[in-house]
Amino acid sequence: MTERAMAVQRALSRVGERRYSLTGNNCEHFATWCATGIAISQQVIEWLRTLFRIALAVAGTVFTVALAQAVLAE
Predict the structure, then answer these.
(1) pLDDT band at residue 1 under the 50/70/90 scheme
(2) Taking the alpha carbons of 13, 19, 25, 26 in that order, is the dihedral positive or negative?
(3) 8 Å CB contact between 74 and 59
(4) What does residue 67 show for φ and ψ, rounded to 5 degrees?
(5) Tens digits of per-residue pLDDT, 29-64?
(6) Do residues 25 and 39 touch, judged by C-beta distance below 8 A?
(7) Which residues contact 63 (CB under 8 A, 6 or more apart)?
(8) Residue 21 DSSP symbol
């Protein structure tokens, strides 16, 4: 079976499915799964990376402020 035929077969196997999820089963997950057999979304991965970077920046800022307050309190 050709890759294209496998992709079409995968897509048809999910006709009528109603399990959409923005982070776990979105249109990019579906398209990638049809083409490769692996459901992955680079958009979701990048979104999570950005969220993690923001969380680290906030944690670093909170730590710096707490440290500065401790030093000034002495």
Answers:
(1) confident
(2) positive
(3) no
(4) -65, -45
(5) 999 999 999 999 999 999 999 999 999 999 999 999
(6) yes
(7) none
(8) B
